[in-house]
Design a protein that fits this description.
15 strands, D-Maltodextrin-Binding Protein, domain 2, binds 2,5-anhydro-1,6-di-O-phosphono-D-mannitol, 5-stranded mixed beta sheet, Fructose-1,6-Bisphosphatase, Chain A, domain 1, about 350 residues, alpha+beta, binds magnesium ion, 2 domains, single chain, about 30% helix
């Protein structure tokens, strides 16, 4: 179907292609779309701009350091974690398009207060991923996953949150790095936008990102080696050793922020791994807030994501804060690790 408006495909210089315009343009194929999805994304982008602005001033705004609380994951809560979480909740609950939310920082699902109307979407998020990097000026990010509600009635239910990754309507992340970037997919193509702070808009900078079939880096916390299962140790030794075809050795990169490690893997290829080990029997990363949204993006960009046993997107969640091992990135690299497990 032809676009009903004459803005045309993005020009090579991408001038004027804001995130909002891009979503509207891509929605032209759905004549029944009422703009709810666009409005929801507007609020996500707004939250990203507010959090990004605070992150940039962190040392000046008195938001570095810890709150003194411990979250549901048993982790120390940073002031910025709390700020990011509150910002996302406030921006989304007032949108009118959400019936329930879930956050890595909250034990239970988060309802929409009475004064606001509810809508057909469910948003799950890790408000500030990479907590340990907040105070040291290293890239951090927000990860989000959007589902269509399955319940009826005003309020959403836990069932709305516990849907498998393959039925996500959209997923994305906002990275607070040397620039602020908003990367999203609705399942068919991954698109990246860079914030132009002078005009306060996310502008299209990375259209239709594709993960290379194979990369030349591996990403894993090598400090955990003593806890690894044998297969992981053997795979790491294998990627580090030169081979006759000169495919190996791979370089090693590890930021310790999933958003940053995944972003690099998405653009350059390679593989990011957070396995189950003797310390974390089911892995460290959370299925709903980290693994599933990143897996949705990886697959939409031509990559793969596995728990080592199955496709991440096929896992039926049983609880909000479920953890899962994660092997994600270039298709051939993910296949290679799986062979060692
Ligand atoms: P967080 O969501 O509390 O920040 O924890 C998740 C982070 C990921 O961003 C990152 O990939 C991983 O934990 C790093 O863990 P480790 O420090 O054990 O390597
Ligand atoms: Mg996280």
């Amino acid at each position: 179907m032809q676009p009903t408006v004459s803005w045309g495909p993005p020009a090579p210089d991408q001038i004027g292609w804001t995130l909002e315009r891009h979503i509207l343009y891509r929605q032209r194929a759905f004549p029944d779309a009422k703009g709810e999805f666009t409005a929801l994304f507007h609020q996500l982008a707004l939250a990203g701009k507010i959090i990004g602005s605070r992150v940039t001033q962190a040392g000046l705004a008195g938001v570095l350091g810890v709150t003194g609380d411990v979250n549901v994951q048993g982790e120390t809560v940073q002031k910025m974690d709390e700020f990011a979480n509150a910002t996302l909740i406030r921006c989304l609950e007032s949108s009118g398009h959400v019936c329930i939310m879930a956050s890595e920082e909250n034990e239970d699902a988060i309802g929409v207060p009475e004064q606001f109307t509810t809508g057909k979407y469910v948003v799950l998020f890790d408000p500030l991923d990479g907590s340990s990097n907040i105070d040291v000026n290293i890239s951090i990010g927000t990860i989000f996953s959007v589902h269509r509600r399955v319940s009826t009635g005003r309020d959403g239910t836990l069932k709305d949150c516990l849907q498998k990754g393959s039925v996500q309507v959209a997923a994305g992340y906002i990275m607070y790095g040397s620039s602020v970037m908003f990367v999203y997919t609705t399942g068919d193509g991954v698109h990246g936008f860079t914030l132009d702070p002078s005009i306060g808009e996310f502008l299209l900078s990375h259209e239709d990102i594709r993960i290379p079939q194979r990369g030349n880096t591996y990403s894993i916390n090598e400090g955990n080696r003593m806890h690894w299962e044998e297969g992981i140790a053997k795979w790491v030794d294998w990627v580090r050793a030169p081979d006759a075809e000169k495919v190996h050795p791979y370089g090693h990169r590890y930021v310790g922020t999933l958003v940053a490690d995944f972003h690099r893997t998405l653009l350059k290829g390679g593989v990011f791994v957070y396995p189950a080990d003797k310390k974390n029997r089911t892995g460290k990363l959370r299925l709903l807030y980290e693994a599933a949204p990143m897996a949705f993006i990886a697959e939409a960009a031509g990559g793969a994501a596995s728990s080592g046993k199955e496709r991440i997107l096929d896992i039926e969640p049983t609880e909000l804060h479920q953890r899962v091992p994660l092997f994600i990135g270039s298709k051939d690299d993910v296949k290679d690790v799986e062979r060692f497990l």
